[in-house]
Amino acid sequence: MRKLVIVCLAVAALAALAGTALGSGASSTRSATTVRIGTGKIPKLGTVLVNSKGRTLYMFVPDKQRKVTCVGACAAIWPPVKLPAGMKAAASGAVKASLLGSDRDRAGGRVVTYNRWPLYTYVGDRAAGQAKGQALKLNGGYWYVLSPAGKVIR
Fold this sequence. Notes:
Structural class: alpha+beta
Number of helices: 2
Strand content: 25-35%
């Protein structure tokens, strides 16, 4: 487990140096003023939330539908879906716009929320359609995907 954490931190650091916006969710094909949250199908999990690149989005149990608690080293492994100043979260697919929101990130800025759960990607997911972080206990709690209804899929 420790090797996985070290590898994930190294990958996150290299991606940041290369200018890759891991988990940003910012849409380049739509208006530059939105961060798109959509849906995708994952085998055995069904329809789940994804970012504009089709990357699976997760919730963190310790957030308790209240606030962002994954910061620092945790956020290097589980990058939050940032909502840059002046941007809005936009729903696509089966996502309900009424469940979209944002929360203040202690690291600065805002993070997109769904049904009050802050949203994160996972550096272990290398491509769209993967959910390697599902039901993983890491960084102080469990990580799960969310359904378009805003329910935790365990």
